[in-house]
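Because discrete structure vocabularies remain unfamiliar, it helps to consider an illustrative case, giving the amino acid sequence and backbone structure tokens:
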Amino acid sequence: MELLGIHHAAIICSDYARSKHFYSNILKLEVVNEHFRATRNSYKLDLAMPDGSQIELFSFNGAPARPSYPEAQGLRHLAFKVKSVAQAKQYLEVQNIAVEEIRVDEITGKKFTFFADPDNLPLELYEV
């Protein structure tokens, strides 16, 4: 497995409008996509950095402050670019790392999956 770089960092915010303003107007990240997901009553905002990496900004009503939950405020997960999610998944499993089933991003059509580091930090493999 060869990690090619960081694809995106996902952040769950406590105040969507304030965070959107901060990342897009103060930090000057380019808004790529903004989606309201009615089934979750939540926003997903994709922000591009100059090197092509992105910040995904999420809003979830009632998300608790982060002690350890994956849907809490703060850094949601770290995603790594890979050529093949299937090959990377197989490599990790050979190393006795539990890896979730491969899914397809409903917006981009790209394959991805999750696993965890020794401290249970959620990590993602995202196919480029």
Q: What stands out?
A: The longest strand covers residues 5-13. Strands lie at 5-13, 30-37, 42-48, 54-59, 74-82, 103-104, 111-116, 122-127. The chain has one domain: 5-127.
